[in-house]
Amino acid sequence: MTEVLGDDRVDTVRYEVTEGVATITLNRPDKRNALTPPMVDRYVELMRAADDDPRVRAIVLTGAGKGFCSGADLGLLAQGAETLREFLPGSAATADAAVCTPKPVVAAVNGAVAGIGFGLLLGADIRFASKDAIFTTAFARLGLVAEYNASWLLQRLVGLPNAMDLLLSGRTIDADEAHRIGLVQRVVPAGTELGAAFDYARDLAANCSPRSLTVIKRQVYADAERSRAEALAASVELMDASFDWPDLAEAILARQEKRPARFSAEDGTHANEA
Predict the structure, then answer these.
(1) What is the pTM of this model?
(2) Which of 105, 155, 233, 251 could form a disulfide with 163 if both were Cys (CB 3.0 to 4.6 A apart)?
C-alpha cells in the first residue's frame, strides 16, 4: 500500500510509504527545491513521522524535478540578518534530522546540491547520484561559514584535505569526482537515481533486521568519537547482547528453511547503547 501525506500548506515536502520505505521529496521544482522556513519545519516533521511509523524500515530522501536542493531560497538570503536568524533553529534541526533518525537514510541526488542542501546530503547514510548531478558547498562564495555541521560530517566522509578543498573553495564538482572522493557511493544514469536508491532501501527493509540497522547506525556515529579500544569494547558488549535477540534465531531458522527472514518491526531503539 502507498500512502501520501500532504496539504496545501505543506505540499512543498512530500511523504510516501511503499514496501517499508518512506520517500521524502523536496517538492519545489521550479526553484530547484530551495528551502523556505515552512519547508524546513515540514521536513523535520516528516523525518520524525518516519521514525515513529512502524511500517517504515528505511527512508529515501530526494528532490522533485531537476534539482536535489539548491540551498536556502535566495529571496530569504536577500532579506538580511534578522530574517536569516529566524531561520537558524529550524535549519539546524533539518541538517541533523537524518543523522538522528535511527533508521537508514538513502539520498537520491537528481541534480544540483548546494548550501544547506549539501548539509542535507551529508546527513544521509548512503548517497546515490545521477550522472549529471553537481555539488557545491557554496558557503565561502556567499560570505558564510561551514553551516549546519558540514565541517564535522564532511571530513569524516571524504577526509580532511578533501573537506578543506570543498569548503574553502566552494567550487562545483561533478558526480564522478564526488564518487571518487567518497561523497557519494553510487553514480547511476540520469533518471535512474531514485529507482536505484529506492531498490537499495527496499532491500534493507525486506532483508535486514531493523534492530541491527538501528544499532549499527548508532555504533558508527558513536565510534567516530571513540578510541579504537573504546570502540572494540563497546562492540563486544553489543555483540553479547545481540546473541539473545530473536533476530539471530529467526535469521538462522530462515536460512535452514530456505525462506526470507521475517524480522520484527522492533527497531532496537531501547537496545543496549554501549
Answers:
(1) 0.89
(2) 155
